[in-house]
Amino acid sequence: MSRIRDNYERSLWNRLTRWVNGEADPFEGKLEMEPLRESEIVGDSVYNPERLDRTKVEQYVEDMERNKEMKAFRILYSTASVALCLLLIAVLLLAVSWLPVLGDPDGPNNNEVSARYVEEGIEEFGAVNMVTNMILGYRGFDTFGETCVLFIAATCVIVLLQKKEEKIENARENDWKYEPKPDSILQKVTLLLVPIIFLYGFYIILNGHLSPGGGFSGGAVIGAGLILYVTTFGFHRTQRFFNKKVYEIVKVGALSLYSVTMIYYFYTGANQIKSMIPLGTAGDILSSGMILPINLFVGLEVACTMYAFFALFRRGGM
Amino acid sequence: MKICGKNARCRMMEVFNILLLVFLIICAISASLIKNPLLSVIVFMSYSLVMSIIWFLLESPDLAITEAAVGAGVSSILFFVTLRKLKALSEGGQREQDKR
Lengths: 318, 100
Known about the structure:
The complex is a heterodimer of chains A (about 325) and B (about 100).
Chain A: H1 2-10, H2 12-21, E1 40-42, E2 45-47, H3 49-62, H4 68-98, H5 112-125, H6 130-138, H7 140-161, H8 165-170, H9 184-206, H10 215-238, H11 244-270, H12 291-314
Helix pairs in contact in A: 5-6, 6-7, 7-11, 7-12, 9-10, 10-12, 11-12
Chain B: H1 8-33, H2 37-57, H3 61-85, H4 91-99
């Protein structure tokens, strides 16, 4: 009976299940264990045997004269990494040399798809900026998915990093409490700069269909402005106008309004119904149908996400 | 980037482009080789800035704005916050904190 049990315990399957369940101890039966020694105080300094042992082991491992294996490994590691890097560069350069020449009329990138984007984009979606036509019009499905991914990413960061409000206030290891530094130059310059940054961000968002820019870049600019304000004046002052409630309302509201408009577009497009929203004159600020509001939704979403990332990493809450 | 004939202004832009690309490569290599993490992040920031100028010269200003805002702005700030949390910033900053 005991022989069978021994056989079972040594079998591959048992070891595998133990390894999967996390019960396996790789040092079992191979390593002599020593009881933990307590640290003593000798004179002024604290004698910590555990740390001393650790440094001794590290010194022993790092001793290149004796440890030939380590030396060989180091040399092999550095040569292999350099060789791999050079190989990667060579492969990439080779791939680039095979690409078609930029602006070649016979190239495979000059087909009827890009021709349609350029020729009929303004007529079909009404935005002067062709890039906006492409990303919010022809490729609206992809941009919608991207915004959803951003939303999910921010939600995951909240789930992973958020702490309870009392815990944040009482935690000793929180270093954000030493902020903001009462620096009058910084505060004055921030008061001057932040409104201009916000204005510029909203300009980029609202002019997304007329000039370069759009929801994502404008939202990133607004988020950066919010981060600047927080680092200068601290979280308590920012919470007066941008707290968790505002964040939730803006973020969920923007995404749901965005999805409603996209559902409308998908429904009308899939059923060959003509869209009811007028496109207006191309070049006006109020034109190009739903591209302007969609840009605004994307911008709010991105600005909230940027600020949320910073606040959660820094403090653990909004 | 365009291929120039004898146009002096176009030639100058070409030289400027090459300078930017060389600076980009130097930044990329040094960002990975510098030991001090703070300096490394700053070099990475300048890499993003040069990249945004190159995007602009490649006639895609949309990407240039995004690169400047996200690459040089927000991502570097997140790097700084992470370094601060890991207490990997320079000695001077930590001593300043201990005094308070």
